[in-house]
Amino acid sequence: MKPKLIFLALLFMPLLNMKAQCNPTITSPRLGVQFPDKILFCNTETEILSTQTSGTYQWYKQEWTWQTPNTNPWTAIPGATSQTFAINGNDDQLYYFKVVVTQGDCTAESPVVMADGFVYALPAMISTMTPGTFEIVGAGELNVCTGASVKFDDAFPDLYGTHVWYRCIPGSPPPSAGDPCIINGVTGDSYIATQSGEYGFYACTAYCPDQCEFLGTGNFVKVNFGSWEFCSLGTDETKRKENSLKVYPNPTAQFLYIGKESDKVYKEISIIDMSGKMVLQKKEHRFNDAVDVSRLVPGNYIIISKDSGGHTYKNKFIKK
Description:
Keywords: Signal. The chain is mostly beta strands and 320 residues long. Helices cover 6% and strands 42% of the residues. The protein is built from 1 helix and 25 strands. The strands form 6 sheets. Strands 1, 3, 4, 6, 7 and 8 form a 6-stranded mixed β-sheet that branches. Strands 10, 11, 13, 15, 16 and 17 form a 6-stranded mixed β-sheet that branches.
């Protein structure tokens, strides 16, 4: 009896092995570390995708889109016919990947994984002021009423961990002990300024702690506090509501939708780059109108929207 059982086991083992080989999966060092089915790059380094041993392999990629379902075609990657395939953070972010394998008479494809650019983005800063207490006097420069304040926020707080905030432009980042521009004791992703200065930050990514970025001197904001003629801290305008609107798709390469159906029409929307320069403005914007941003330089932008009730909304988006 025992020899017969051993014979049957040996007979079925190749079949079981074939079934296992015909259910391919993808593995890689970063896959699933932060989010299931996603590979998050720290920068432009290479990530090796791998699948189980099989007879033949063909790797495919599909570009991400905000549409559901994704209507972009799956494309066979030329020359990607090995058990492993290398992707990188420069060319492959916002793409889906899968592998199709054959083993004997069986052909099967793996579950899909995504190479996401969520974790890595150049630092950007949002400046928030109370209406009626400031005026823009130039690119990246504000006059602000004495007694008011300016709140600075890292535009991508989920990406960055420890911050170093500056009140003047430092001599040479990374931060050095004794630099008089450093605001001591402030390490969070926001800072409220009440004194004149030039503000910006240096921060390290939370997911990639060895990767740190400097905001860049061109993106610092200069604030001049004083008793300016326009100062009107007591007006009702200071009580305006400020929050966010729905903005999609984000990131986008061409079209952007801004707003909510209940508001119907916005008196004005303005798109501002990280230096504080207004790069696009539209009057009487409807929530279901597409805003063409294809001519904008790839990067991070701020959207200021004003509805018919005088409420101001602030959003951010990434132009691919």
